[in-house]
Amino acid sequence: MADFLTDITTLRERARREMEKGPVTEAYGADLERVLQVLNEALATEIVCTLRYKRHYYTASGLYSEPVAAEFLEHAAQEQEHADKVAQRIVQLGGRPDFNPETLTQRAHADYDDSDDLVDMIKEDLVAERVAIASYTEIAKWLGDGDPTTRRVFEDLLAQEEEHADDLRGLLERIPQDRKTD
């Protein structure tokens, strides 16, 4: 049986002495303030993506719009779930989730889009998913072992963002690209 790096008595004393820190212990190896900033940027990204997908859901029209709109609605719900997970992690780490609507688009990694053309909507959503994939991959690598719980949050988000990108690519392949604007 391996020895603990810190004896159990010391661990217990620290746990009692620093209860106000919640889950953040001396073993936490990341820059907490920077992690909270990155999480709030991800929160803004997920909120902007939720709003973009909702807008696309409500404004999608034309011959191919029904299945595409259904996909937009599903993605909007999943992006909202992502925002909730990120906000929850911010609070767990003792931070404050930033829902300020005045600065959401400035802090978000992805852009908001108000396209009216169905194919343009899909393309803009695909670009946003690819941005999230690249950002979340970098964040997960950056977190490494310093904050494995937050890293796993980003890895879970990343897996679903990759699914979204694949879904959107599939939608683009099913819609004739030479069609006239619906």
UniProtKB/TrEMBL annotation:
The alphabetical list of record keywords is: Iron, Iron storage, Metal-binding, Oxidoreductase
Q: Which Gene3D superfamilies match?
A: 1.20.1260.10
Name the enzyme group at the top EC level.
oxidoreductase
GO terms for CC? cytosol
What biological process terms from GO does the record include?
intracellular iron ion homeostasis
Provide a Gene Ontology MF annotation, just one. Answer: heme binding
Query: Record's PROSITE patterns?
Result: FERRITIN_LIKE
EC number of the protein: 1.16.3.1
The record's section on InterPro entries has: Dps-like (IPR014490), Ferritin-like (IPR012347), Ferritin-like_diiron (IPR009040), Ferritin-like_SF (IPR009078), Ferritin_DPS_dom (IPR008331)
**Binding positions for Fe cation per the UniProt entry:** E46, H82, E129, E161, H164
Q: Does the keyword Metal-binding apply?
A: yes
Q: Where is the Ferritin-like diiron domain?
A: 29-179
Presence of the UniProt keyword Oxidoreductase in the record:
yes
* The protein, known as: Bacterioferritin
Instruction: List the source organism.
Output: Streptomyces platensis
